Amino acid sequence: MNRTITIPFLLGMVLLLSSCGNTDYKKYEGDKAKQVASIIRNNGCMECHSTEAKVPFYGNLPVIGKTVKADMRDGTRYVDFTNLLTALENGDVVSQVDLAKLEHTALSGSMPPLKYVAIHWGTNLSSEEKGIILNWAKDVRRAHFVSPTVAEEFANEPVQPLPNSLPTDPQKVALGFTLYHDTRLSADNTLSCASCHDLGTAGVDRKQFSEGINGQFGGVNAPTVYNSALNFVQFWDGRAADLQEQAAGPPLNPIEMGHISFDDIIELLVQDKELVTIFEQLYPEEGVTESTITDAIAEFEKRC
Questions:
Q1: Catalytic position from the list 47, 103, 129, 256
Q2: CA 27 to chain centre
């Protein structure tokens, strides 16, 4: 074949095959979540947006391999869709952040990048696939994330107005207040949550670096507890998904409150018969556990 027509021919084949796309999602007609999951899985999204992705064979080749691995690393740093895909396939609610990022991808047409499509023909999102993702995102947002204070024309915006209030259980709030100020949550009985998140000083300790047991200092200052329930993730680095998960961290941090496990904390708290009675009333099936301790603290913090 003449070399002058080989290159145009190959480019034409790339464009033709790229336009074909994947149609596996069509067998899930009527189940938008399963359709979106199919699109994500079959359009190569998980090749660069999952910590579980395996490096392809060409990722170990000279020159190109370095670029491939860098793209995979950067893609996962931007967004890891592993939990999103699991939620979609199990019928669970996805996070607002994953929802917004996937929605943005469909709107912007920025993914997958051309250099990926050039190697993986047919992975670009078709107009129909984009429509499925956008309609699914709109339905999920309306079902789970719309603020009651938002005007109808802005109901599908990823950034929603703050709610007028957050529903809480007053009795659990009261228990959470007690635990929030309880120094038994620290190994040497000197610190409570309030030590670093003082309600009298804007929910912080006003120090450059927060101080833990035995005069130890961490590497960051304490973020405010005020309005923390409105954070989409917790801790400065976002490593906790919600307030309850966050509340479980400092008691077991060796620099902060220093307990070895929640078993130690529970052993101390169950000696307080009045406190045990309250737990049994509010959590009759569990009593004093890590889950109920952190749940009560989180319930109180929703009111801060």
A1: 256
A2: 29
pLDDT digits (tens, 9 = 90+) for 124-174: 778 888 999 999 999 999 999 998 889 999 999 988 888 888 899 999 999
The CA-atom distances, in angstroms, between 178 and each of 6, 16, 46, 185, 191 are 76, 66, 45, 11, 13
Residue 302 has a CB neighbour count (10 Å cut-off) of: 19
Q: Is 47 a catalytic residue?
A: no
pTM: 0.65
- Indicate the pLDDT class of residue 77, thresholds 50, 70 and 90: confident
Q: Ramachandran region of residue 212, left (φ > 0), alpha (ψ -120 to 50) or beta?
A: beta
